[in-house]
Amino acid sequence: MTMVRIDTLLYQGKSAWWIRVLLFPLTLLSLLYGALVRTRTLSYSLGLTGKKRLPCPVISVGNITVGGTGKTPLVMALARKLKEKGISVAILSRGYKGKKAGGRWVGDGSGVFLSPEDAGDEPFLMADSLKDIPVLVGKDRFAGGRMALQKLELDGFLLDDGYQHLQLYRDLDILLVDSQTGFGNGRLLPRGILREPLSHVRRAQVFLLTKVEAPESCRSLEQRLRKIHPSAAIFHSHYEPVGWKGPGNEREGLHHLRGKKALALSGIGGPGHFSALLRMCGIEIVDEAVFPDHHLYTGKDLASVEKRMKEAEYVLTTEKDLVRLKRLPIGHLPIRALRIEMRIWEEEEFYRRVLEIFPTVGKNRILG
Fold first, then answer.
1. Which residues does 30 contact at the CB level (< 8 Å), separation at least 6?
2. Are strands 335-344 and 233-245 parallel, antiparallel or unpaired?
3. Which residues, including other chains, have CB under 8 Å from residue 358's CB and lie 6 or more apart?
4. Considering the entire predicted model, what is its pTM?
5. Measured between alpha carbons, how far is 132 from 107 in angstroms, rounded to an integer?
6. Tens digit of pLDDT for each residue in 80-89?
7. Cβ distance 98 to 74 under 8 Å?
8. Using CA atoms, how far apart are residues 58 and 159, in angstroms rounded to an integer?
9. How far apart are CA 273 and CA 284, in angstroms?
10. Rg of the Cα trace of the chain?
11. How far is CA 311 from the centre of its chain?
């Protein structure tokens, strides 16, 4: 049985008896993992482990499942909206897989200082795309916030992938849920895709369902969430393709590649949805090269992709993947990244809820 097949089983609600027997060791590990997570969470809720609080509002964006739920696109959308409303924020990220994620500036709003390898692909992408929004990385997000406040005048912070970062007090917890995969088989890691017990969604004040084709298509998932946490607000979102980006950050409109044949290349959580977005843009996918989430591409990977470009006119990838690919000599490849932005179906109501936590900023300016 391959790893891909095991990964697929983590999303299935019911399995054959022989599969349950085969994966029984993972079940035992998930019980141990769950005990550790519950103990840690209880320690914070009882005050046995103290939380630190920054002197301005903090919005956390996170999830309780592994895989891509859209945290980075939402953080970027929030940063843009808050900037538009005159609210100055900085982004605090852990810097997953970054070599220098020990409390550093990725960008201070005037330039980008770290490479993708040092910062992590997602913090680099945010700093590179949000030119005027400061981005910091570090395991200690409180220390990162203090460092930012020593240099900049800020109204608040956005905590990227912050749901499990209980050390830092937050004024608003936004929990993202992939509407297409939900909570998988409902089991904890490593037997399932849950990073925490499902009951822990009660810490969130806002649920945002992602990859939603139409809000009415998510009723069963909404009912499940409301049964656990009746008072939380539920919103819906989807990705909107907005154009193409080349290796030199050159921009092209969506129409530029419409009707072209392409090889879809991705190393993300949820590659199937990426392929669906490409087809939505009028792309004919003749092959797909799928790598693990956050995969660090090598020259061998690139050579393999080139060999598979028999019918393909372009290699199409994600912005996150392009960040990691640009460390390789890809100038000869006809490669483009699909630029997407997150759209909230109930946009006005969603941002009204978000902006409520900034009481010191004039309400007429915020809500107008």
1. 187, 188, 189, 190, 191, 192
2. antiparallel
3. 57, 87, 155, 156, 366
4. 0.92
5. 9
6. 999 999 999 9
7. no
8. 7
9. 15
10. 21
11. 32
Angle at 105 between CA 82 and CA 357, to 5 degrees: 25
232 half-sphere exposure, CB direction, 13 A CA radius: 25
Phi, psi at 178, each rounded to 5°: -70, 115
Any idea which fold 240-341 has?
Rossmann fold (3.40.50)
Domain segments of the chain: what residues? 58-239+343-367, 240-341
Which amino acid is present at 77? A
CA distances from 80 to 7, 129, 202, 351 (A): 35, 10, 28, 12
Domains 58-239+343-367 and 240-341 share a fold: yes
* Interval 144-193: pLDDT, tens: 999 999 999 999 999 999 999 999 999 999 999 999 999 999 999 999 99
The residue written with tokens 């406040």 in the block is: 149
**Fold classification of 58-239+343-367 (topology level):** Rossmann fold (3.40.50)
How far apart, in whole angstroms, are the C-alpha atoms of residue 84 and residue 280?
29
């103290």: which residue's tokens? 50
Integer Cα distance of 46 and 312 in angstroms: 57
